Amino acid sequence: MKKFYKILEEKITNALKECNYEDNELVVFESNRKDLADYQYNGSMKLAKVYHKSPMEIANDIIEKLKNDSYFKEINVANPGFINMKISDEALIEFTNIDEYNYEKNNKLIFLDYGGANVAKSLHVGHLRSANIGEALKRLCNYLGYNTISDTHLGDFGRPLGLVILELSKRYPDWVYFDPNYNGEYPDVPINNALLEEIYPYASSKAKEDENYLKEAQIMTTKLQNKEKGIYELWQKIIEISKQDITSIYNRLNTTFDLYKGESDAEFIVPELLKYLDKLNIVKESEGAKVIEVKEDTDKLEVPPMLLLKSDGGYLYSTTELATIYERMQEYNPDEIWYITDKRQELHFTQVFRASKKAGITTENTKLVFAGFGTMNGKDGKPFKTRDGGVMRLTDLLNQVKEECLKRLNDDMENRDELAEIISMSAVKYADMLPNRETDYNFDIEKFCDLEGKTGPYILYSAVRMKSILNKAKENNIEYNKIKKIANEYDRDVLITLHNLDLILNNAFNSKSLNEITEYLYRLTTTFNRFYTENIILKEEDIELKESWLCLTNIVYKVTSILLDILAIKIPDRM
């Protein structure tokens, strides 16, 4: 993609060279005072300290070299040394007509870990942000030309599954899975996800109250870890059933994964990891446990050692996390690994990342990223709860939002249910990515389903309007291929906004947050809607102007579609 602001930076860089100045961190900003300028450069204040001149003198030297450049409609200096630039209509038209909205592929591989569903448990509202943010970041990487691999890293092993299998053995002792002498093919079992979701909390509570039950669960977990015949096969059936339900919910969110690996994959590689670590002399003993020291001299807060093995020889979440990185580096050798999970896990990942570097599992060139996110709460600022005080299931939240959208659609609308589903997902996703990734926010169902304001439905409604204009032009055989005229400031505002797309996308990539994209979408949409209100596009008598406006509408629709697709939001045919 060509970068409009980069052209401006190049022009200023060349002007600086002619004046014998140098700015190694030169940045051009979009102006927030549209009455004064489209773009602004404020490096003169910094250069003044280097070259011992006043900022105004340096700024005037620069614009003296640029004042006759046809790219600028106006260029002037404002105190204390800001350079204000208004772009000429000719430059805007020329650049828009040659601009391409795609990026070249590169060889860098980014591995993304998000989702974090647990087998035999229902997805709850706490899983929403990981799925939405992770999926959007993956799509953003792909759009910018990176190769990606995504993994939901299921919670599919350990004591939770031991508890589930134990309770199944209590309720259905006659199943052949619990017969150690059975040698035939294992049949399907009458289990559904609803049963699994009921069993786990029951067994978990019972284990807290009954010490004997807890010991039985520990024994069952050991059998599972040892892949005992029957137990391991039943576990596989449970995984298969639970994964179907998990996948159906992710599909509803338009969230996909290349891999559905889990903790079990890491469990089986831990012995190999431990052998590898034993050779490095970095594992220390601490009160009978084995740890890896990961603190650094620059730490402002204490970073405890990463616990590798407990005193009883058991291992922990950090052990399997390190084993997961070990496996990923061996199998895929990614350039970067991103983890999108609750920000409260930051210390855990700091320890694991440092241990992986210290052990040489990842190199200095391997970038490990923890993209932690804040909490989504209810309208009252408190965590989403069910009426009985439990954590709300994700499907229940999605259904509530869909019901709110259905209320706002006419009863006689064709494909009403399908349309409500698309609109409700836009409401959920847009609201979830509107705040900065690290910020906690309150989800107000009525507010975020509204057709006005910063909402997914507002963006969709505007996109459908653009599509309708373009369809009507096609029905009337009106052709358009280039922008030829700029009629007013409304046209200019849309063009200037469009040319900031590359900056927005790269800022989102660097910050690992989607809020710049959601804010930009809102700004682009409102700018277009002002343009639409002021210009009667299809009834314009000036042919060149009508074609220019249609071409501009088409570009805005294309960019809107690209960004909504990055956010994994679908555009309906009508609203």
Spans of at least 5 consecutive residues with low confidence: none
- Give the terminus-to-terminus CA distance: 32 Å
Count every helix, treating DSSP H or I runs of 4 or more residues as helices. 21
CATH topology of the domain at 394-566: Isoleucyl-tRNA Synthetase, Domain 1
- Could you say which structural class the secondary elements and strand pairing correspond to? alpha/beta
Overall helicity: 40-55%
Q: What is the count of β-strands? A: 13
**Morphology call:** globular
Radius of gyration: 29 Å
Largest sheet: 4 strands, antiparallel
CATH class wording of the domain at 394-566: Mainly Alpha
Strand order of the largest sheet: 1-2-4-3
Q: What is the residue-mean pLDDT, rounded to a whole number? A: 94
* Assembly type: single chain
CATH architectural type of the domain at 394-566: Orthogonal Bundle
In terms of DSSP E residues, the strand content is 5-15%
CATH superfamily (homologous) name of the domain at 394-566? Isoleucyl-tRNA Synthetase, Domain 1
